[in-house]
Design a protein that fits this description.
The protein is mainly α. It is built from three helices and two strands. Strands 1-2 form a two-stranded antiparallel sheet.
Length: 103
């Protein structure tokens, strides 16, 4: 299934924005490969838009009887949260401080 007339391309400008938003640094030697991989992913997602899903139930599952459920039991270990906050670039009062993205 080929995308008709719409081209999705990840360029250096988009990668720079992704670096800023994610607070990660992409090694220069990896940027071209990463841009290519992200472009392929976006093109695949665009192709999925062409599928006719109007006749499918929103709860459709390939598993007989639906998706198995499990009891939602939180595991509380304050050391895990402390470890995560200690390795985050910017935190304050147990919150992550992130760049403002909406003006």
């Amino acid at each position: 299934m080929k995308n008709k007339g719409y081209s999705v391309t990840i360029d250096n400008k988009v990668l720079k924005n992704l670096e800023k938003l994610s607070m990660l640094t992409i090694d220069e030697s990896k940027k071209e490969e990463l841009a290519s991989q992200l472009t392929e992913i976006l093109e695949y997602v665009e192709n999925l838009k062409e599928l006719n899903t109007s006749g499918l139930d929103a709860a459709f599952s390939t598993l007989a009887g639906g998706t198995p459920m499990r009891e939602d039991i939180p595991h509380r270990n304050p050391e895990i949260a402390r470890h995560i906050f200690n390795h985050a670039p910017h935190t304050e009062d147990d919150f992550f401080i992130v760049p403002k993205i909406i003006e």
